[in-house]
Amino acid sequence: MKIILTHEVSGLGTAGDVVDVKDGYARNYLVPRGFAIRWTKGGEKDVEQIRRGRKIREIATIEQANEVKGQLEGVNVKLAVRAGDAGRLFGSVTPADVASAIKAAGGPDVDKRRVELGSPIKTLGAHQISVRLHAEVVAKLGVEVVAA
C-alpha cells in the first residue's frame, strides 16, 4: 500500500515521503496513529505542504545540530512527577514531558517527536534519553525524575 508519511518514522522515512508498506502495517498502525495518510492523486498537494512545514521545523545543517547538541548536553533536566512510596510513577514519563522539561530548564526548544526514550520511564531516579537532532547527530541527555 502506498502511503504519505506525516511524521518521521524511524526505519521508514521522514514526513512528506511517499513509501510503499504492507497493507496491515499501514491500516493497523501508521494511519490510526496519525503517522501517515493514504496516498491519492490529490494527496500530492499534501506532500508539498508537509515538506514545507518540515523545512521550517528541521535543523538544516550538521553544524546547527552540533550547536544544539552542545546546548542540550549542558542542561540539567529535572522532571517532577507523582510517584508512590516505592518509587513507582503513576503512569510514565512521555517524550512531551521531557521536551517541556528541557525548555523549562533553560535549554533549546526541542520537538517532542525527536525525543527517544528507549524504554518507558516508570521509576524515580536518573535516566538516559536520546534526542535525534539530525540524521547523523544524536544528543545524549540525563534526566532526573523526582517525586513531586
Automatic annotation (TrEMBL):
What gene is behind this protein?
rplI
**Alphabetical GO biological process terms:** translation
Give the record's keywords alphabetically. Answer: Ribonucleoprotein, Ribosomal protein, RNA-binding, rRNA-binding
Q: Which PROSITE patterns match?
A: RIBOSOMAL_L9
Gene3D superfamilies tied to this protein: Ribosomal protein L9, C-terminal domain, Ribosomal protein L9, N-terminal domain
InterPro entries associated with the record = Ribosomal_bL9, Ribosomal_bL9/RNase_H1_N, Ribosomal_bL9_bac/chp, Ribosomal_bL9_C, Ribosomal_bL9_C_sf, Ribosomal_bL9_N, Ribosomal_bL9_N_sf
Gene Ontology molecular functions: rRNA binding; structural constituent of ribosome
Role noted for this protein: Binds to the 23S rRNA.
**What organism is listed for this UniProt entry?**
Streptomyces sioyaensis
Query: What is the protein named?
Result: Large ribosomal subunit protein bL9
Where in the numbering of this chain does the Ribosomal protein L9 domain appear? 13-40
Per the record, the similarity remark reads:
Belongs to the bacterial ribosomal protein bL9 family.
Q: Which GO terms describe its cellular component?
A: ribonucleoprotein complex; ribosome
Name a Pfam family for this protein.
Ribosomal_L9_N
